[in-house]
């Protein structure tokens, strides 16, 4: 845009030659030639093509005063940092042509022409300076955006790490509380139950028998409640990611690629179901497959939980033949108990299980969140 503005200003400047000499055919020819050359400058990319055009313009200005009058706007399109030496020679040639060629400019026209050349150079330098500033601005803007994106990503990573650490600490604290209750309160209650049992045996007073039985019943109820609370705390403290990573770390049959993308509020039924299915799937791979690679994907979607276990091996012992229906027949005949247990677990959670044998063995499980 600035280049077009500079060219337009120089064209208007060249029209000021009309103040020094009347318009004639040469002026019209020079104007048309300048428009044609400006258009050609936009399409010529190679330096030698542009230099040939420059030589043709200088040769034409020797014979046509109109072309000479429009040399400032024509030179404007040739100025670059790389060819300033050549352009200085071209300017000198243009001045020589205007002074001694067929153009034979008067002193006033020659000074006006030289001033136009200088104006062309000044406008070109300003254009280059503006382009450099614009490039620097764009570079600074892009760097700023990149830094902001990196900072945003780093902040997101830190927040996720902090949330995971809080989640892990919460589970560890639940586990600690469950252990403390089991080791302290549970043992004290067990001791009390044993003491009450001994009292019940040695007691000979009928009046105390009823009270001792009530005390024993209360202690047993308290022990049952403590056990249920401990079990609930322990079940809620299971970290699905850590347990799965431990299973993967203990699996030495072949490399395992684990992709985990689950939230923190996974129901414990889903946790234990996925853990049991992964255990059984890895066990089946060791027993029935010659896989060299296993991939496990645990992913949480807005409406469902997803588990995928797949390998690239072939079955050493026929687990299925003919798809899901054949698997059902095997289950009915008492074979494939591992796969049947997986299917039963998924069905109890209200989900779906699909088994595909194509370029390996693939178990695909989805469990809706509403049901879970």
TrEMBL record:
<dbReference type="InterPro" id="IPR011712">
    <property type="entry name" value="Sig_transdc_His_kin_sub3_dim/P"/>
</dbReference>
<dbReference type="GO" id="GO:0005524">
    <property type="term" value="F:ATP binding"/>
</dbReference>
<feature type="transmembrane region" description="Helical">
    <location>
        <begin position="86"/>
        <end position="103"/>
    </location>
</feature>
<feature type="domain" description="Signal transduction histidine kinase subgroup 3 dimerisation and phosphoacceptor">
    <location>
        <begin position="173"/>
        <end position="236"/>
    </location>
</feature>
<dbReference type="InterPro" id="IPR036890">
    <property type="entry name" value="HATPase_C_sf"/>
</dbReference>
<keyword id="KW-1133">Transmembrane helix</keyword>
<keyword id="KW-0547">Nucleotide-binding</keyword>
<dbReference type="GO" id="GO:0016020">
    <property type="term" value="C:membrane"/>
</dbReference>
<dbReference type="InterPro" id="IPR003594">
    <property type="entry name" value="HATPase_dom"/>
</dbReference>
<dbReference type="GO" id="GO:0000155">
    <property type="term" value="F:phosphorelay sensor kinase activity"/>
</dbReference>
<keyword id="KW-0902">Two-component regulatory system</keyword>
<protein>
    <recommendedName>
        <fullName>histidine kinase</fullName>
        <ecNumber>2.7.13.3</ecNumber>
    </recommendedName>
</protein>
<keyword id="KW-0472">Membrane</keyword>
<keyword id="KW-0812">Transmembrane</keyword>
<dbReference type="GO" id="GO:0046983">
    <property type="term" value="F:protein dimerization activity"/>
</dbReference>
<keyword id="KW-0418">Kinase</keyword>
<dbReference type="Pfam" id="PF07730">
    <property type="entry name" value="HisKA_3"/>
</dbReference>
<keyword id="KW-0808">Transferase</keyword>
<dbReference type="InterPro" id="IPR050482">
    <property type="entry name" value="Sensor_HK_TwoCompSys"/>
</dbReference>
<feature type="transmembrane region" description="Helical">
    <location>
        <begin position="51"/>
        <end position="79"/>
    </location>
</feature>
<dbReference type="Pfam" id="PF02518">
    <property type="entry name" value="HATPase_c"/>
</dbReference>
<feature type="domain" description="Histidine kinase/HSP90-like ATPase">
    <location>
        <begin position="276"/>
        <end position="370"/>
    </location>
</feature>
<keyword id="KW-0067">ATP-binding</keyword>
<keyword id="KW-0597">Phosphoprotein</keyword>
């Amino acid at each position: 845009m600035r280049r077009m503005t500079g060219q337009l200003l120089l064209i208007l400047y060249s029209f000021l030659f009309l103040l020094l000499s009347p318009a004639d055919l040469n002026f019209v020819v020079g104007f048309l030639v300048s428009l044609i050359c400006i258009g050609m400058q936009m399409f010529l990319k190679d330096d030698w093509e542009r230099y040939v055009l420059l030589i043709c313009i200088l040769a034409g200005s020797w014979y046509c005063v109109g072309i000479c009058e429009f040399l400032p706007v024509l030179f404007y399109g040739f100025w670059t940092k790389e060819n300033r030496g050549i352009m200085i020679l071209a300017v000198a040639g243009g001045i020589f042509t205007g002074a001694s060629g067929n153009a034979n400019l008067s002193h006033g026209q020659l000074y006006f022409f030289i001033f136009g050349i200088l104006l062309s150079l000044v406008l070109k330098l300003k254009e280059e300076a503006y382009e450099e500033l614009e490039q620097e601005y764009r570079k600074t803007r892009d760097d700023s955006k990149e830094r902001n994106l990196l900072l945003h990503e780093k902040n997101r990573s830190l927040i996720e790490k902090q949330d995971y650490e809080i989640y892990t600490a919460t589970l560890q604290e639940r586990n600690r509380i469950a252990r403390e209750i089991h080791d302290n309160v549970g043992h004290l209650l067990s001791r009390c139950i044993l003491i009450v049992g001994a009292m019940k045996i040695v007691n000979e007073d009928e009046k105390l028998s009823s009270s001792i039985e009530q005390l024993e019943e209360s202690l047993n109820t308290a022990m049952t409640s403590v056990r249920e609370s401990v079990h609930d705390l322990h079940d809620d403290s299971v970290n699905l990611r850590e347990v799965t990573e431990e299973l993967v770390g203990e699996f030495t049959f072949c490399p395992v690629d684990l992709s985990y993308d689950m939230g923190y509020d996974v129901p414990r039924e889903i946790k234990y179901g996925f853990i049991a299915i992964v255990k059984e799937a890895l066990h089946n791979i060791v027993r029935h497959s010659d896989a060299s690679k296993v991939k496990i994907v645990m992913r949480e979607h807005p409406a469902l939980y997803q588990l995928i276990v797949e390998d690239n091996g072939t079955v050493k012992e026929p687990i299925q033949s003919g798809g899901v229906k054949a698997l059902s027949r095997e289950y009915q005949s008492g074979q494939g108990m591992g796969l049947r247990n997986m299917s039963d677990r998924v069905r109890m959670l209200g989900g779906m299980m699909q088994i595909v044998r194509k370029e390996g063995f693939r178990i695909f499980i989805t469990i809706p969140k509403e049901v879970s």
